[in-house]
Amino acid sequence: MKENKIYIDRKLPTEKEIERHKDFGALLAAYNTRQSPRKRPEEKEGTPKASVKKLYYYVSGVAACFILGFFLVYPSLFQKKENADQETVANTETNQNVGGAVPDTGKAPSVVNTEKPVATAPKPERNIAAPEIKKEKATPKTAVPETPVDMVAEKTKETQSQTPAIPEPQKPKRKPFQLKLENEALHPELMAYKNHQWEYAGDSDTQDPWKNNVFGKDNHWDNASVRKMEGSGEFEITLSRKDGTSFSFPARLVFSGKAYDEAMKTYEEWKQKQGQ
Amino acid sequence: MASYHISESQLIKEQKWIEASQKDPGAFGEIYNFYYNRIFLFIFKRVEEEDEAVDITAQTFLKALTNIGKFSFQGVPFAAWLYRIALNEVNMYYRKDKSQLTESVGKVQIAEMLEETDAIVSEDMVKQLSTILQKLDPDDMQLISLRFFEGMPFKEVADILGITENNAKVKTYRILDKMKKQFRRTEG
Hints:
By secondary structure, chain A is α+β, with helices and mostly antiparallel strands.
């Protein structure tokens, strides 16, 4: 018969240490998929499958960065090209004013068709000097963002330069949810993390989105935006409809399962950078 | 002491949480937060590694959440139901793993138990008791552990093990008698 193992006066984990293991989000996810939240043996660290997975995540992460980078850089490249086009046209116009030997094809120069505000400036008649156009073109387009993408990127750059504190990742204590928030890019502290979730951070039932069936199928919202609440480190999420009705509630950033570990890594790295 | 006795107001609150969780699994968070630390410690004392305790605790709460729809208050408090699931999970872990049963005991609890067996509390006796506990049958170990090491009243021990209070008492004193005899044998 096997003997029992008896530990006398064994050191027990503290409340704080136990709290670290709490992960209600993971429990709910496991419940929803009806799967065990335990790690399957093949997923344990160091096994070949785990390393292949890691490589896969790394490669897809790099690919995602490239795609994101392309979309951020592409509009500015496009604008630069337009600037160059307009400059060429202006030079052509000037050349013609000076009496240069540009053959008149009878076609309007491409600048006329440009829809950008700068380009829609009244087209100067031939034989009239066009320094004004040049002047307008001289104004750097990057200073005034024209497309919504530019505006967001500009604002992000602006806010990122202020390096705000990113909140310490927390595991959900209540039922978490995910929302596509239209102005999330304006909050670098949110952009720092991947796969984040939200949980209701208030005490009142009247504001609790779950208790008010806010995410119900019959409840359609047109917009969802987020605003940082001063001092508390929490956020206010506002869901609104085109008819003017809206629902706001305090929310906290949370992470479940692997996302928590990744967020902790990001947070530690950020903290280290701050310390330097 | 791991007694799960709670105040009446807490009991009412708990009843509301259970009803809410039966309708919406997301509401189970309140129960989870309230009981997590206790259940974790309860399991931790019965396994060797912290990671194992984390896994078994997660499994315990998953089972509780999955079956909460079937729970109805019929004399057995919800906490006893939760501890019962935890104990079953620990037993299942040992059955699967075929490893030794683990028990973490404080010296204070050992002294209390020795007093019950009319033995004089000394370092030697603590060692002797530890040796006797190592050889205890798993079912007996469970009873002794809940009663003396967790400090639960007989009513709660009975609730968790699914036996009557009287039965819990009789069984416990029978085990203690057996232990007393072993003490005498080692002394002799």
